[in-house]
From TrEMBL, chains A, B:
<keyword id="KW-0238">DNA-binding</keyword>
<dbReference type="InterPro" id="IPR036388">
    <property type="entry name" value="WH-like_DNA-bd_sf"/>
</dbReference>
<protein>
    <submittedName>
        <fullName>Transcriptional regulator</fullName>
    </submittedName>
</protein>
<keyword id="KW-0804">Transcription</keyword>
<dbReference type="Pfam" id="PF07729">
    <property type="entry name" value="FCD"/>
</dbReference>
<dbReference type="InterPro" id="IPR000524">
    <property type="entry name" value="Tscrpt_reg_HTH_GntR"/>
</dbReference>
<dbReference type="InterPro" id="IPR008920">
    <property type="entry name" value="TF_FadR/GntR_C"/>
</dbReference>
<keyword id="KW-0805">Transcription regulation</keyword>
<dbReference type="GO" id="GO:0003677">
    <property type="term" value="F:DNA binding"/>
</dbReference>
<dbReference type="Pfam" id="PF00392">
    <property type="entry name" value="GntR"/>
</dbReference>
<dbReference type="InterPro" id="IPR011711">
    <property type="entry name" value="GntR_C"/>
</dbReference>
<dbReference type="GO" id="GO:0003700">
    <property type="term" value="F:DNA-binding transcription factor activity"/>
</dbReference>
<feature type="domain" description="HTH gntR-type">
    <location>
        <begin position="15"/>
        <end position="85"/>
    </location>
</feature>
<dbReference type="InterPro" id="IPR036390">
    <property type="entry name" value="WH_DNA-bd_sf"/>
</dbReference>
Amino acid sequence: MSENGLELQPIEGLQSLKARTYEALKTAIFEMNLYDEKAQLKLDERALALKFGVSRTPLREALAQLEQEGLVRTAPRRGIFIVRRTKAEILEMITVWAALESMAARLATVVARDAEIAALHGLTDTFSSADVDAHMGEYSDANIRFHAAIIALSRCKLIADITSGLFMHVRAIRQRTIVEADRARRSIIDHKEIVEALEARNGERAERLVREHTLRLRDHVERYVTID
Amino acid sequence: MSENGLELQPIEGLQSLKARTYEALKTAIFEMNLYDEKAQLKLDERALALKFGVSRTPLREALAQLEQEGLVRTAPRRGIFIVRRTKAEILEMITVWAALESMAARLATVVARDAEIAALHGLTDTFSSADVDAHMGEYSDANIRFHAAIIALSRCKLIADITSGLFMHVRAIRQRTIVEADRARRSIIDHKEIVEALEARNGERAERLVREHTLRLRDHVERYVTID
DNA sequence: AAATGGAATATTGCATACCATGACGGCCGC
DNA sequence: GCGGCCGTCATGGTATGCAATATTCCATTT
């Protein structure tokens, strides 16, 4: 790459402390939400500042951003608390997801190129209904990428932004969700029907299929997943 | 209320400077976007701190939140810039709005009570197609409240939050939009059909009507509204 | 012994001072 | 005369210190 052999990737290493602290906190909060379950939801500014090796100022600015994003809630003289999503909130997120992805599918039938839609086959055809049980992990990955692909095909950056923000909150639950085999089989069928609708440029049908598919996920979570 | 007759509401008057600065900046940015058109997009931390009578610290925390929200962008040593939305971004926002409000209408057919749906008549029946021309201002208000009411009926707080965030960005454009009389007449008819679908508890139809209604607005903006 | 009030402590909110860095202008050299 | 380089200045980034307030515990009183 570089003429003198030095691996100098476009710097990128030196952002502001605020930005780096923001990212670090985000992942830290995510980790805590995953593993520590009921553990300490209370954070301490100075302890965090010490832990990250920065002053309280950039840390507080990062916290202000996270508060705006709804990940933490700061109570004066009480501490900073990690906001834990209730099951109702998770369900609302999946509902919004359904609305946005179904709209994305509609848009995709208008703006996506044939080749792009055809590429979706690579995320569905590799899994036959038979061997889903054996490769559940891989399928879960392909599942997520399939939905992300549809959103990308819509060319709507705002939908992509909002859904990625939602995904960040939901993935903790999603990983906890036991995806039974029969749901996966149904999912695969759904996906193939969605691809067919996209290829037929049938916006109404694609939208409806995606919506129903995701709303089924919501109902499943509502019935069988327990949070807290 | 209180046993000794004293009317003591929990003070509530004093928020943190950060919160108040945040609100003040938000409205200030909105005002600038409305009137100053091409005017100064560059802000100065110290000048703003002086203007608001606070130190740079709470001001910067408020700016961090606004940056997270996408209203401003801060460039080191260059200044803080008000982010101006492009027309494409506005169109994306209306598209997302269509997706969310149509989903809200669907949800409303399930969870809303009859009385709540009936209350929508108060926002539509007062305007006959005839006298729309005379009371365009009032109609514009009722129009906005009608859509807000549908979202409220869905009982989905997340949809309400996201759409109110979008509205904040779009209203500057919405106010600039010349709502011609024939669009208003069409709009009234649409609204009445939507109320009918809600009363009939026809989720599919309510969703479709709301979606098409809002997507028509998008197409109108795309064709006839110029930004910048 | 229990309850209440006060004091001490701990923790956040805010302000100020300093630092690092990029922009801009002047000066020097070609 | 023009262009490049260097120095100064302006501006956002960071650290630290002080003030305000909530919490908690202990002492005193009933």
